[in-house]
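Long-time lurker. I teach an intro course on protein structure, and each term I like to show students one example going from raw sequence to a predicted 3D structure in token notation. This year I'd like something fresh instead of my usual example. Would anyone be willing to generate the tokens for the chain below so I can use it in lecture? Attribution to the forum is fine with me.
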Amino acid sequence: MKLFCLVVIFSAFLFSCGVSSIKAQATATGAVVTNKQTNSDNKKNTLDLSGIDFKNFTYPVPNIVNLEKSFTLNNGKAGKKDGSPSFKLRKTYFFDLTGDKKDEAITHIIASGCQLGCESSSLFYIHTAENNQPKLIWKIAIGGDVMGGLRAASFKMNEIVLETFGDCLLDDWLIKPNIDLTKNPKLKTTSYTRFTFSQSGSGYAQTSKVVLPLSASTNISDYRPQISFGEQ
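-- Reply from a regular --
Happy to contribute to a lecture. Here you go:
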């Protein structure tokens, strides 16, 4: 009887060890597969955007009558062509906007001419790396004049806040002044608009808009927009 019990216990022990061994092998095998998938994903996104020559690059423009759908910078500049304004690269910034621990490229371009606004207009383009190629995930154009020019831009993880002079509205991806001559016949700028865009899917969507009073001491004609990154 004792011998029989020992045989049963020993058999149970072997069965238990066998199951543990199988589980361990399965776990180890799963870990190897997971690592392979991770390595494969990493290979798709090894592009360093700081190595992209954004001063010799093609960008889209807002859908405005008589404007071409895109322009190409040559050494950071694109001259006036067929009624289009001239474009000049202000700067390309690199900052992690999406939280994937990899920097996106935020390119700031200045447009000069009355097609977007009779003062210098600002355009921002955000690119991320996908399949070892720069991919445009968001763009915005701010018409440039005292009734709709850029006041400030703040880029944070998963959120972008833009401020423009005057009471403005978003039309597709162009921010322009919402002029009401019955309320403001002298076209005097007494307010500014704050737009908030939050990450949505692979891009950004407007989540709020508020019109705020502008300090009477603000010198708009000599104002230099404030551009910031991260929490201030």
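Some talking points for your students: The chain has one helix and 14 strands. The chain has two domains: 1-44, 49-229.
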